[in-house]
Amino acid sequence: MQAGKLPVARRGVISRRLSGILEPYLYVSPALVLIIAVMLMPLILGLSYAFRDIRILNPFSGGFVGMAHFQTLLTDDAFFGALANTAWWTFGSLLFQFTLGLILALLLNREFPGRRLIQALVFLPWAVPTFLSGLNWAWMFNPVVGPLPHWFTALGLMDEPFNILSDPDLAMWGPIVANIWFGIPFFAITLLAALQSIPKELYEAASIDGATTRQKFISITLPFLAPTIAITLMLRTIWIANFADLIVVMTNGGPADSTQIVASYIFTQAFRRLDFGYASAIAAVLLVLLLAYALGVIALRRAMTHADS
Amino acid sequence: MASIEIANAVKSYGAVDVLHGIDLDIQDGEFIVLVGPSGCGKSTLLRMIAGLEDITSGDISIGGTIVNELQPKDRDIAMVFQSYALYPHMSVAENMSYALTLRKTAKEKITDAITNVADILGLSALLERRPKALSGGQRQRVAMGRAIVRKPQAFLFDEPLSNLDARLREQMRSEIRKLHRRLGATSVYVTHDQIEAMTMADRIVAMHDGIIQQVGTPIEIYDRPANIFVASFIGSPAMTFLEGTYEIAANGNAGVRIADGALIPVLPAQGATANQAVTLGARPEHIGIVGDDKGGIPARVDLIEPMGLSTLVHVSLAGNPVKIFTLDRPDFAADSIIHITFDMEKIHVFDTKTQLRLPPQSEPHTAKTA
Questions:
Q1: Domain range B4-231, its CATH number among 3.40.50.300, 1.10.10.10, 3.10.105.10, 3.30.70.260
Q2: Is the pTM of this model over 0.95?
């Protein structure tokens, strides 16, 4: 009897200690369950497709194929073409979006009548659904219904009105122009907010110190904008690289894959060829590339701010 | 160093005039304090001298040259801002040398100037720091240093001490004064704090509603305020005002009869006529508490404020609050009746209608009004 009692008491101690350890996890479990269900599960599931043969039209597919998709990818010229196009698309759009957005922000930061109204209107392109703006721009470039080819001809840029979207050498500029139009407000608004947080006295002190407008821009405006510029450029790079809507709507990757970027190539593989496995493999590669890019930018920023202080 | 002349300077925003014809001559090397409540136009006037605000009409000259159309950088002035306006991305040394660098001054000269000024201000150990790593007082010093390094014709200060705590403010007050004595530079200093004005100024310019109310040395302004506004704005604790009518007895003695019928004797005032509506102004230190049998005027005790060095007794006299300054430590119960007297040599009579001070007949006619 005595011998049987002791383990019971010990069991009580152990279970109390165990519940003490588990208790905090119990409290955070609702959040953990949500995160796992909503974020981690789809990610892992999606990544797992990359290692499986999943073709919607083939009822016998679904088996594990290991690294086969990635090996195919290594010899897929269309993929490498899309990778180069992605770089062109991303940095071509980004450069103009940023430069024009910064100029617009500097203009909007001055006092003029009706400033508030203009500030609100400038935001409009950002609010237009991308499919709508894609269609709009596609029509604008179309010589049958749009004015742009006729204007270019009148300016002497074209010999006769034609649709640049159907010229493999020029087609990429169509979605890029649409993307620039769509993305300027983002930079204008965020940079304007940063500009407005710069104390006015600094400019006054600088003008008393004898700084010209250009010198004030370099020694006051730019240092104040630098953190915003760094973070917005990084965010936008990732967004644009992933942003296939305009391309799918305007050119569908064509003509002859000349506007195919990685994101639209994924879309083509998944929803036109219905090869979900291969599409997932490409998506996994894009994810790794963008992660590497983001880590690189963050490291660069940390190095810069470290040198700063 | 240079003198500054302001002739009939007007500033308007649209139809609203914020400065109505300011005339002011500032001598070479003088320390002038512009004082007044917020919105009186003192900062606007300073910014017009600096060139940060346009001059609607009139002229401002620095060192004999009219500067109306000159850019701030061409006026050869330095300004210390309330927020200090230090460049946050530059070190202390870069902040101070920025103006010299822009003028392409030789490197050795810049280093010499910075070392020298940092010595004067006790900033030598902080030269490599960023402004965010400095305390409020240190930032204030850097702002001063940035101004001094350039050796400008004039210094402009826009409420430079209002962001500091009380003790530091007191310390910086005397440091700025000492610095001014050492550099001898013409200085224009804007503040809403009458204690700063009193302690620092060679001459005070009291402003209200865009008009100069009075210009004078601190003691002139304190002892002979031109009008009720200056009398009430300068001095802490503030002057007590009692409305009444002016009376002259057959023997020539004068007095002000206040609401409850009591007669407060005053010196006969210039230009005052019998039964004229006047306002009596008395500083707390010019009102005394006397024994019940010494013929004082009865008043009811409201509150006693001990301040250590002195005590401030708040009483009601004919419904008006009156403050009495005393070095004694009275312990009157609230609502008890005490008797007070006014020092007739020191108290003021103001014309209630024009608000102007009516100086005693014994005083030479020197009241300065704008």
A1: 3.40.50.300
A2: no
